[in-house]
Amino acid sequence: MPSQTCADGGNSGVFFCRAHPYMRFTMARPQHKTFDKVKSVAENRKARFDYHIEDTFEAGIALTGTEVKSLRFGEGSIAESYAEIKGGECWLVNANVPEFSHGNRFNHEPKRPRKLLLHEREISRLQGAVERKGMTLVPLSVYFNARGRAKVELALAKGKNAADKRQTIKDRDWQRDKARIMRDNG
């Protein structure tokens, strides 16, 4: 067995192995601001038009085997779906993952509520924003990350009114016209 040495030379009880000095400072993995989307399965394009996006979260999703296979084939829709918090857990409601074509009697129900995997502090933060500020939890996309895990990009959003939607259309049209003018005139 390799010898152990006290890190601070005293009585703190913090030991590290001389054979593995890199194990001395173990820290948590840093959180990324942008999510590593390797394969996008479904997007909710209308969400950015209908809502002001305040904050985004990456949540894992609890799926059965045939649901994962169906998503890997690129099938699935989150156009009419939303998330809600019940009993201290976050659920994705009304997301459509069609039955797997080669599934048997163990195939899944297409529109069942699916549990979203978030930390407790994230859930309490989301619940507070939904209850106090009248915000909505909207899924923006479903994708597979670099490790092959299915993830949901969840947004904390506030609904737009008709005037905001008209302004969004005006801005989008102006950006398109501006790009066309710059392209034509140099």
Describe the structure.
This protein is α+β, with helices and mostly antiparallel strands and 186 residues long. It has a domain at 37-165: Small protein B (Small Protein B, Chain: A, Beta Barrel), CATH 2.40.280.10. The protein is built from 4 helices and 9 strands, in the order E-E-E-H-E-H-E-E-E-H-E-E-H. It has helices at 47-50, 65-72, 120-133, 162-185, and strands spanning 4-6, 15-17, 39-43, 51-61, 82-86, 89-93, 114-117, 136-144, 150-159. It has a 7-stranded antiparallel beta sheet with strand order 3-8-9-4-7-6-5. A two-stranded antiparallel ribbon has the order 1-2. Strand 8 and strand 9 (150-159) form a beta hairpin. The mean pLDDT is 83.
What's this model, at a glance?
The protein is an alpha+beta fold and 186 residues long.
Largest sheet: 7 strands, antiparallel
Write down the overall mean pLDDT.
83
| CATH fold node name of the domain at 37-165 | Small Protein B, Chain: A
State the distance separating the first and last CA atoms: 72 Å
Q: Beta-sheet strand percentage?
A: 25-35%
Low-confidence stretches: none
Tell me the name of the CATH class of the domain at 37-165: Mainly Beta
Which structural class fits the helix and strand makeup? alpha+beta
Q: In terms of topology, how is this protein built?
A:
Layout: E1 4-6, E2 15-17, E3 39-43, H1 47-50, E4 51-61, H2 65-72, E5 82-86, E6 89-93, E7 114-117, H3 120-133, E8 136-144, E9 150-159, H4 162-185
Antiparallel strand pairs: 1-2, 3-8, 4-7, 4-9, 5-6, 6-7, 8-9
Search tags:
alpha+beta, seven-stranded antiparallel beta sheet, two-stranded antiparallel sheet, 4 helices, 9 strands, 27% helix, globular
